[in-house]
Amino acid sequence: MVVVDSVFAPIENDLLALNRNLKNMIGARHPVLYAAAEHLFTAGGKRLRPAIVLLCAKASSENSEIFSSQRRLAEITEIIHTASLVHDDVLDECSTRRGIQTVHNVFSTKIAILAGDFLFAQSSWYLANLENLQVVKVISKVITDFAEGEVRQGFVRFDLQYSIEEYIAKSFYKTGSLIAAGCQGAAMLSTSDAQISNELYMYGRYMGLAFQIVDDILDIVGSTAYLGKPAGSDLLQGNLTAPVLFSLPETFQLAELIEKEFSDTDNLSYALNLLNKGSGIQQAKDLAAEYLQAAIECLNNLKDSSNKELLKKLTLTVLERIN
């Protein structure tokens, strides 16, 4: 995306350094663990989380400076995110991620679980070496939140009683928590102003929720080439997301297909067709837009700067992924 690239331009060199450092940071004694972890890093990804951390670092500092501790925090957030993806793919039985085979498909389920655990352990080691107890507390809770989100998701697959409020709570645990903590941690490492760090936490929280909703819309409207996995993959797993939940009151056929758990071969394509015809996707877009507006308002007390404007610009690009 051209707009996102322009937002990231001021931190382009930092992101290039991050990509190099990630592989160095996962240097494991066992070559199979290293290869499994490197496999997903090599696939790239949006690097949204570390980019937001770096932009928050610049926006909350006196001289638009990024400290080495903040660069390391950006790397830690990406390692934690990658570890969660490795485990998610095992739980969801995904065959591809970012257009390449998932770790458990290339190696084995056992190796994938160990690789995810290893990445979580590595992130904890580097986090401890920041030697900032408050940041350690904020970031370490994210790993607990991931587990909470997965447990919640596991118990409500194909559950037609699942509510939009429960979906938002689960989305915070699985996506919003890490982005929120990264934003807050970046501010904590550059300023002692608790109000600024708390507002950046809320900025990240709203950004994370909006980003998850947009991802869930893309699962329905995106192409396999764009997603790096088949469209409707989440729905096929029984994960009822915002566009699905908003669509359910409109069509009884969708509920029937979900109750059948898409047992017939054409069920999923029929469900995707129903979703594209209804208003659920637009309602989900509207909800994401509300969260993005709330995120922008969280930046009001930051000092005016080009970095603050970049954060606003980045916020506005989230919806452009589905327009």
TrEMBL record:
Tree of life domain: Eukaryota
A GO biological-process term: isoprenoid biosynthetic process
One term of GO molecular function: prenyltransferase activity
Keyword Oxidoreductase recorded: no
InterPro entries the record matches: Isoprenoid_synthase_dom_sf, Polyprenyl_synt, Polyprenyl_synt_CS
Keywords: Chloroplast, Isoprene biosynthesis, Magnesium, Metal-binding, Plastid, Transferase
Names of required cofactors: Mg(2+)
Keyword Iron: no
Record-stated family: Belongs to the FPP/GGPP synthase family.
Name the record gives this protein: Prenyl transferase
Organism whose genome encodes this protein: Bangiopsis subsimplex
